[in-house]
Design brief:
- It is built from 13 helices and 23 strands.
- The relative contact order is 0.15.
- It is α/β, with parallel strands linked by helices and about 425 residues long.
């Protein structure tokens, strides 16, 4: 890398898994150039922390404090210039990003030699009347903090918590909240799902694990309502498509995702869901006869193709981590005037927890349940946490929470759970 072209600037949009792991790969491969100022890394993020969602269930259940799963971006990426700001516009011709600082100061812009779009996706709350102002989501900036705050008071007003969406994330959160609030009549947690059964993807691939999810929801007395949708929400509760109403306290939406729109990226190729189309090396696919772009994308904002099937990869953290790492490697290679390499990750599996020692997991297609699944999930998530110091504290925090809960669990309740 010659000095006459320095400094080269890489701009990373978003503060999630893609950005974090692209940053790590760039620093590892260009550490001398980064240290000497020949390569500058700039992060633009509307959130000032990286939210590690792997332990969201434990946060919702009150087993972990939210701050242990949040790492300030300046701590996670110490060699980057972190801008706590919202992207206003991307000028693909000028290769510049205009941003508005969250603190309200004047808009500014930053030029780039390479741009990485890792802004993820958000729940399409505007599809349901009143849900934008009513629901808590995990994908909004500050969403994890809001979940922790509302989970701490869930059920205090006598109204149930409503979880919208019966995918694996929704099922895990519904179970965690039910475990925290405890058994009640009527049920303290209602799970609303438009399909005819929850965790449909698991039913297709691992029916045994899907059955375990249903059994855990039943054990925790979650009121599961399938075949119906939330069509409106207000301060009093939610209205369902079957005409019934639920006087909800907290409303949590896990209703799928829509890529976060970034003005200026409209000319780039997208799929029917609005995700940026990427090539094998994760550059954004050029439109028409344009030459290959210097824009990369991964995670929920992109339709990354599976190396074997050619279908879009699942929208979860592990795929974003692996794709982000490949993006970072390829950006580093491009800055060295080398061609990028294709994304080759084939997948590992998935996991969920329903309380200490109660887990499900699939590892390379092999279904696992119970303590083995729970420990596998714990070890895997600790491995990928961006803050080693926070990761080291989590097992002790979980152990303390388990001891405290055992000490305060009435005997009659413990007998009922065993029964």
């Amino acid at each position: 890398m010659s000095d006459d072209r320095t400094p080269r600037r890489v701009v990373l949009l978003g503060g999630g898994y893609v950005t974090l792991h692209a940053y790590g790969a760039i620093v590892r491969r260009l550490h001398r150039a980064v240290r000497r100022g020949q390569v500058e890394i700039v992060v633009v993020s509307a959130d000032d922390v990286h939210n590690f969602h792997g332990f969201t269930g434990e946060v919702a259940a009150g087993r972990l404090p939210a701050h242990l799963t949040q790492t300030p971006l300046v701590e996670a990426m110490p060699r980057a210039r972190v801008l706590h700001a919202r992207v206003r516009h991307v000028d693909l011709h000028r290769q510049a990003v205009t941003y508005a600082p969250v603190d309200g100061s004047a808009e500014d812009s930053v030029r780039y030699d390479a741009l990485v779009v890792g802004t993820g996706a958000a729940e399409p709350l505007d599809a349901v009347a009143g849900l934008v102002d009513r629901a808590v989501t995990l994908r909004r900036p500050g969403g994890l903090r809001a979940l922790a705050e509302q989970a701490a008071t869930a059920g205090d007003d006598g109204r149930p918590v409503v979880v919208i969406g019966g995918g694996l994330a929704g099922v895990e959160l519904a179970a965690a909240l039910a475990d925290r609030v405890g058994p009640a009549l009527p049920p303290s947690v209602v799970l609303v799902h438009g399909g005819d059964r929850v965790v449909p993807a698991l039913h297709d691939e691992h029916p045994r694990l899907a059955a375990r999810c249903a059994a855990e929801l039943s054990r925790l007395a979650v009121d599961v309502r399938t075949g119906t949708r939330v069509v409106a929400a207000d301060d009093d509760g939610v209205t369902l498509s079957d005409g019934s109403t639920i006087p909800a306290g907290t409303v949590l939406a896990t209703t799928g995702q829509r890529p976060v729109p970034l003005p200026g990226l409209e000319p780039l190729a997208r799929d029917a869901r609005g995700r940026l189309l990427t090539q094998r090396d994760l550059r954004v696919t050029p439109v028409g006869a344009r030459p290959p772009s210097n824009v990369w994308a991964a995670g929920d904002a992109a339709a990354v193709q599976h190396p074997r099937t050619g279908l879009p990869v699942p929208a979860n953290a592990l795929w974003a981590i692996k794709a982000g790492d490949r993006v970072g490697r390829n950006v580093a290679r491009t800055l060295r005037d080398r061609p990028g390499r294709p994304f080759r990750y084939l997948g590992l599996g998935s996991a969920a927890s329903f309380g200490t020692g109660r887990g499900i997991a699939s590892l390379y297609g092999v279904p696992i349940t119970g303590w083995a699944a729970w420990l596998l999930r714990l070890g895997f998530f600790l491995r990928f946490m961006p803050s080693p110091s926070r990761a080291a504290r989590i097992p002790f925090a979980l152990a303390r929470a388990r001891s405290a809960r055992a000490a305060h669990t009435p005997r009659h309740r413990a007998v009922a759970v065993r029964a």
